[in-house]
Amino acid sequence: MLLFNQKVIKFSVIITSFVLFPGCAFIQEPLGQKNIAQLSQHAESIFRRQNIASSQVIILTMDEENSVLSAAELTMQEACAALNAYVIRAISGDDFLMLDFLAQQRVISTLDDCDAATKKLELLLQRPILIGG
Questions:
Q1: pLDDT tens, 19-28?
Q2: What is the pTM of this model?
Q3: In total, how many domains does the chain have?
Q4: Residue 121 in contact with residue 69, Cβ under 8 Å?
Q5: Is 57 exposed, middle or buried (0-12, 13-18, 19+ CB in 10 A)?
């Protein structure tokens, strides 16, 4: 009799765990909805700022080359490559929700470097000494 009760208890524990486990394992966004929205807004802001900075570099270097600005722009483009590729895919009509998780993680992991490179170029563009030099 004791052996039968042990089997029933083990079986009950297994069944109960399968019933309860899915409720505990509900996958949520690791950053939460609010943080995802903030991150998305931050990424969009950086994307816009780097495009404005690139446009300014193009305008300022139309007549003559400025190696400092060109190098800073190249550094920014390299740092922001994941963000730019992600945005281009989203704009080109790919379903935004279907963009792969790895691409999203690459954007998140490179966003700080992209922001820093963009800020550096923005600061260089504010310095009148570099224009034409």
A1: 444 444 444 4
A2: 0.67
A3: 1
A4: yes
A5: buried
